[in-house]
Write a structure and sequence with these properties.
This protein has 323 residues and is α/β, with parallel strands linked by helices. It contains twelve helices and eleven strands. Helix 3 crosses helix 10 and helix 5 crosses helix 12. The longest helix has 19 residues.
Length: 323
């Protein structure tokens, strides 16, 4: 590269410097005129480290780095059941080098809190797949089935941990309450990792957690899974013996999506760049490993299809939350 620059005229050097400055400022100039992000990318995770959203964000960031050669750092901005992180991301409008590991909280927060955003405030890039939850209890818990938990809640206190007022586990417990005419006593935490610690520490009776968050503790015998809030039993060998809630007469199944978004107001070129990168990521071993390691259901959609999914899922959530 240096030998080529030496051949430029003085005017050529000025023009090259000018073009380089434009590329950094408006993200429109990479070699050959192709789009490139204006700076190293940041993946915002709106929850604390260790939970399902953090695992998702770090896996996506690592996968995107490999298919784009763009550095993608991960930044946790937890608080307010995700509201702090999403609000911060809202302030990055127009910045093509920011991404956020999104999940159901993006849809639930505007339905339950006074926030300045909804899913239309952002640019949907990719939905990776669906993440259901398991009802789990400590190994020494007297509960052996989900039905026993529900029966106890009908006339006695059952303490349930939830990771925020708009989290997937909060939604699942609400659905169970509505279906079975019961009520759980909730203890809120900021992330799935904190919920897990409370459950292992005996501070709560039950929790509804993603399989990827608790598989290790289930296999070690520290926790036991009573049922899965999924449409059908998992095909993964590690979970195949866990009945669905529906098998036990509790008609509840709800999945949290995992995906990533960009800020609103970015260019079409930036949007297509990240969608193309996401499609490459889906074809990689890293994507398959993430889905399988976290025991998710692969169901990738992009761009406008992701937006349509968010529209429908938001409407479904509205019916649950504001029923």
């Amino acid at each position: 590269m240096a030998s080529r620059i030496l051949k430029f005229s003085a005017l050529g050097l000025v023009m090259a410097a000018s073009l380089t400055g434009c590329a950094a400022g408006d993200a429109s100039g990479a070699e050959g005129g192709e789009f490139a992000p204006s700076a190293d990318a940041r993946m915002i995770v709106p929850f604390s480290a260790g939970g399902g959203s953090d695992l998702s964000g770090r896996s996506i960031a690592s996968g995107l780095e490999k298919v784009t050669d763009v550095n993608v750092s991960v930044e946790n901005r937890e608080g307010g059941s995700g509201a702090v992180g999403y609000s911060y991301f809202l302030s990055q409008e127009g910045k093509d080098n920011y991404l956020l590991a999104a999940e159901t909280a993006m849809l639930a927060l505007p339905l339950t809190q006074d926030v300045e955003f909804d899913y239309t405030s952002f640019t949907p890039i990719m939905k990776l797949g669906d993440d259901y939850t398991l009802l789990v209890v400590p190994a020494d818990s007297p509960f052996e089935t989900c039905t026993e938990v529900v029966d106890k809640a009908k006339d006695d206190r059952v303490i349930a941990a939830v990771s925020g007022a708009t989290s997937l586990d909060e939604i699942v417990f609400t659905l169970v309450e509505q279906a079975e005419k019961v009520e759980f006593d909730r203890v809120p935490f900021e992330s799935g990792s904190e919920v897990l610690a409370a459950l292992l520490g005996g501070k709560v009776d039950v929790a509804s957690l993603n399989p990827g968050e608790v598989l290790g503790q289930i296999q070690s015998g520290d926790l036991k899974a009573l049922c899965a809030f999924s449409e059908e039993r998992y095909e993964y060998e590690e979970l195949a013996d866990i009945p669905t809630a529906k098998e036990e007469g509790i008609d509840v199944a709800f999945a949290q999506f995992r995906g990533f978004i960009a800020p609103g107001g970015i260019s079409e070129e930036a949007t297509e760049y990240w969608i193309d990168a996401a499609k490459e990521f889906e074809q990689s071993e890293d994507y398959t490993t993430y889905i399988e390691d976290n025991l998710m259901q692969a169901n990738a959609v992009y761009g406008d299809e992701f937006t349509s999914y968010l529209e429908g899922n938001s409407a479904d959530l509205d019916k649950v939350i504001n029923k």
